Input
Amino acid sequence: KNEVEQSPQNLTAQEGEFITINCSYSVGISALHWLQQHPGGGIVSLFMLSSGKKKHGRLIATINIQEKHSSLHITASHPRDSAVYICAVRSMETSGSRLTFGEGTQLTVNP
Amino acid sequence: KAGVTQTPRYLIKTRGQQVTLSCSPISGHRSVSWYQQTPGQGLQFLFEYFSETQRNKGNFPGRFSGRQFSNSRSEMNVSTLELGDSALYLCASSQSGQPYEQYFGPGTRLTVT
Output
């Protein structure tokens, strides 16, 4: 079992739909990151969470430390949101910036 | 501020050769981490450097090595290249070793033939 698991692996939505991507992890963490990767490889950090909820525009990220679970929500999805979304955690057992990644969720938003 | 830069962006090498990749972090960032991304294994942590010292190392063979200079620029080296080393190599910088947000570079795509 991977330390970080995401679901679903693939997600296709229509423009305007509300989207949820889930991330479960099995280790104690000091932080959880949501990352976005577009074709071509560049990765953008969307959120870093250690508790509660954060919101940037149409994106919302939540984390439940007790349940070891986080969700990324996209409201009013748009074709430009099509990308791979990756959950990554920083374990409490390691110092520094080492991240462990989920396998990613490929999101396709159709117009 | 300029973002994280990586050079070269694309590289083709032959089995058995060695390669050096470079990463320049955001100004003021002292931590640089390196990651390998392949279709089969996804993103995996290679190593992290902080103030010219390797702080963490992932589960990669000794053919993978790195270093960090006094200006925080970092290089990674892969010796005796294998076909399986073909991957996107990403570096990320952060302000310090604390759980600050990481900023990723565009990556170097290495193809080993």
